[in-house]
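Deliverable D5.2: sample structural annotation.
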Amino acid sequence: MKRPILIYCGVIALSTFVCAQENLLPVAQSAGQMTVDAMKAPLTKLEKLLLAKGDVIIKEFIKLGGVSDSSGTAVFSAMTVSGRNQNDVIIKGIRVEVFRGYSTSSTGFLDLEEIDKVIASVDYMIKLAAEWKSIYNKPYTEVQYISAGEVKLGFYQELAKQQCFISCGNILSTSNSMKIEALPKIKEVLEKGKATLEK
């Protein structure tokens, strides 16, 4: 008589476990879908128009230049985007492409309205790096600016070593470290882009 009782208890336990897993599955799927939707959501005006469906999208690019080091390259382009059914709305900004080696790259966008803020932030970093340059025992310190479109610019200092970095993307980002001298070059390219877009 003991064996049937054990089998019966085992069936109850298994059924309870399966039901619990089935109840958890929709929650996990919902959380996963929210994560995917968040990653797909456009972060800038440029991205929103670029991802518009059911319309003819016109994109124009003007190369501004870039910065490079042994780890990779960052390339900047001024761009304008318009849609046939968008009531003559033209969105302007800068596309940033970060390449690491020959196989890895990612892209981020800066809306025209944010470029002044990015330039001012890079300028502040340049001055800060100059102030810290004579400090030879500085603990690891990182300074960064993250744009609405997940373009990250900054630098870090450890002891006397200073390195600039730039990356695009959030989850699947591509990042490059460069010499600190890249910061003034990045500022110059951004200023060129702003002047080009405002003509």
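Annotation notes: The domain at 45-197 is CATH 3.30.2450 (Secreted effector protein pipB2 fold). The beta strands are 57-69, 72-83, 90-100, 104-111, 138-146, 151-159, 161-168, 174-179.
The annotation will be released with the project's public dataset once the embargo ends.
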